[in-house]
């Protein structure tokens, strides 16, 4: 798999080997390993090196390729929102309580009826599955209940939103600053005028001065509709008559998120020349940034050991683990995605209602909410379970 920042031309050493990832997953004794890859499968004309990864023989692996070998995977844009053709049809069936191979067969049939890519792109399915496994299967932590609980607490922390706040300015204006989560690494900030002074003819508040670590396009900040900023999944859940800003790549955030709220107002008595007031806002590390992944990696020296080499002699292995965790990782991933896409909250989280849907949904693991800000203990349990060490 070719990273987005790989050099051009790239070689195998610049890529991420899927077999290396599968090898690490096998060492975790997962009950189901599913790879759904919506990408082109063109050969690298600059490099013919094939990785030599020795995998265990297991009957729990499913590959869903968006296209056949040596073919391209197409994307479609609608209202500014881009999806791969594979994902377009997959997301309609992802939560079906059917064997995963049955789900993929139906997706393949749906794609086969799509005129735009008929004869150009066809889903390819590879499977060694010998049992009925579905993405909607319940979590079966087995003897790893403590680890599952720690990971669930980490998951909950990665989705905690900053509290909404009311900002009072010296001019008498009052602003509501609100937050929503599109994903665990995508934060939506919106500003709303709660109170406008009577002698002010125009009043508007916008946000600015964000960290360089974040992917923020100034042209898409402080827009009057969510869609203008690229917010499509939450557009129907957000309050109206606000200015919206979408911040992505929160996993890159190394410091607390500090930004500026700027209030702009005009007065008829001042010939409507704009007057500005500012407030600096610190919301800490929101969503996934709260896990402090950079600090955790430094603690475990993963920057040196997580390079995903392509040969077994260099392939990293996990630290000792509890046995019999056959369904843990699959179950956790299923619960995470299933809860996010549940009927109550089909597209993400807004405010505290997200946690209510996680904890009250029948048939799913309850996600405990940690009140303390001290997550060092969680780090040691969670990160050590994923720690990579060289052989």
Poorly predicted ranges: 297-375, 385-391
Helix count from the secondary structure assignment = 9
Share of residues in helices: 10-25%
Count up the domains. Answer: 3
In short:
The protein has 391 residues and is α+β, with helices and mostly antiparallel strands.
What features would you highlight for this structure?
391 residues; alpha+beta; Rossmann fold; Immunoglobulin-like; 3 domains; five-stranded antiparallel sheet; three-stranded mixed sheet; 22% helix; disordered C terminus; Caspase-related_regulators; MALT1_Ig; MALT1 immunoglobulin-like domain-containing protein; MALT1_IG-like_dom_sf
Give the SSE layout:
Blueprint: H1 18-27, E1 33-37, E2 61-65, E3 75-78, E4 81-84, H2 85-90, H3 100-112, E5 124-127, H4 145-157, E6 165-168, E7 174-183, E8 186-195, E9 202-208, E10 243-247, E11 258-266, E12 275-282, H5 293-300, H6 302-305, E13 317-318, H7 328-340, E14 349-350, H8 353-360, H9 376-385, E15 388-389
Parallel strand pairs: 1-2
Antiparallel strand pairs: 2-5, 3-4, 6-7, 7-8, 7-14, 8-10, 9-11, 11-12, 13-15
Organism: Pleuronectes platessa (European plaice)
Protein name: MALT1 immunoglobulin-like domain-containing protein
Region (Disordered): 338-357
């Amino acid at each position: 798999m070719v990273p987005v920042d790989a050099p051009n031309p790239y070689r195998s050493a610049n890529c991420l080997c899927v077999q290396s990832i599968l090898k690490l997953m096998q060492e975790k004794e997962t009950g189901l390993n599913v790879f759904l890859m919506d990408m082109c499968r063109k050969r690298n004309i600059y490099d013919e090196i094939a990785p030599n990864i020795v995998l265990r023989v297991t009957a729990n692996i499913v590959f869903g390729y968006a296209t056949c070998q040596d073919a391209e995977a197409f994307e479609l844009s609608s209202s500014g929102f881009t999806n791969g053709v594979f994902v377009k049809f997959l997301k309609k069936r992802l939560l079906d309580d059917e064997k995963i191979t049955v789900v993929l067969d139906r997706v393949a049939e749906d794609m086969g009826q799509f005129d735009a890519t008929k004869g150009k792109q066809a889903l390819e399915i590879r499977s060694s599955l010998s049992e009925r496994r579905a993405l909607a299967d319940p979590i079966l932590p087995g003897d790893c209940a403590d680890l599952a609980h720690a990971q669930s607490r980490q998951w909950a922390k990665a989705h905690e939103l900053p509290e909404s706040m009311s900002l009072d300015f010296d001019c008498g204006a009052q602003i509501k600053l609100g937050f929503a989560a599109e994903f665990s690494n995508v934060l939506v900030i919106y500003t709303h005028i709660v109170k406008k002074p009577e002698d002010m003819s125009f009043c508007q508040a916008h946000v600015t001065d964000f960290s360089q670590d974040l992917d923020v396009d100034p042209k898409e900040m402080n827009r009057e509709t969510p869609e203008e900023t690229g917010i499509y999944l939450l557009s129907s859940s957000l309050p109206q008559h606000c200015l919206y800003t979408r911040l992505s790549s929160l996993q890159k955030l190394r410091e607390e998120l500090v930004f500026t709220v700027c209030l702009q107002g005009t007065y008829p008595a001042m010939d409507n020349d704009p007057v500005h007031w500012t407030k600096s806002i610190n919301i800490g590390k929101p969503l996934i940034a709260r896990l402090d992944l950079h600090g955790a990696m430094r603690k475990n020296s993963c920057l040196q050991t997580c390079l995903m080499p392509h040969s077994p002699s260099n392939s990293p292995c996990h630290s000792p683990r509890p046995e019999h965790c056959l369904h843990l990782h699959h179950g956790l991933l299923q619960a995470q995605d299933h809860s996010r896409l549940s009927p109550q909250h089909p597209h993400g989280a807004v405010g505290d209602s997200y946690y209510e849907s996680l904890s009250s949904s029948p048939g799913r693991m309850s996600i405990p909410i940690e009140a303390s800000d001290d997550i060092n203990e969680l780090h040691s349990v969670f990160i050590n379970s994923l720690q990579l060490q060289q052989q």
